[in-house]
Amino acid sequence: MSRYASFVAASMLAVFAPHHTLAADGDELAVATFAGGCFWCVESDFDTVPGVVETISGYTGGTADDPTYKQVTKGGTGHREAVQIRYDPKQVSYERLLHIFWRSVDPTDGGGQFCDRGESYQTAIFVGNEEERRLAEASKEALEQSMVLDSPVVTPIEPAGEFHPAEGYHQDYYTKSPVRYRFYRFSCGRDSRVQQLWGKQAHDGIEGH
User: Fold this and answer.
1) Nearest alpha carbon to residue 160 among 41, 50, 9, 34
2) Residue 30 sits in a domain of what CATH number?
3) I need a labelling partner for 126 at 20 to 30 A (CA). Which of 4, 63, 77, 156 fits?
4) Catalytic residue of the set 38, 41, 115, 188
């Protein structure tokens, strides 16, 4: 299932975002890249996290040049919907972002997320360096050993590659079309499944839940 039939718009050029960038005041920001199903939802969740400066919806992990939403959701390119999270490491750590990510998705589902099925909606953590890989693997191992979840964690940890920002209408979609966004999120069963899976830990670190 995909959202393309309901939402159509123009594309924008793909660019590669660096692992580090600068804030307006000159402080260095770090970048985390997570795939958690619908990037509208991942964006809206992480925008509430203190220390997160910006979120960008896009496509990564695949082979196609300048992928479009239609191509990605059709499948075959290897790309996932993902979000680049630019954050101030002085305010929030990468470990904390990992903690929040796990508890906002279903990491036991290898076929997609919630009502959205297929490779483009599969979860993944894209690491930009060896330290991120170490932290991500440790976080995943700790989660598996905690026995909080009833099924194995299938979310892969992959090297970050070229990130293609999604079409402009996807960026901050939850603020541009709040009624449609809330209807989609509710009807897709995202929050109810996360609550069922994680219990009291569901959406930990995300304001508004």
Assistant:
1) 34
2) 3.30.1060.10
3) 4
4) 38
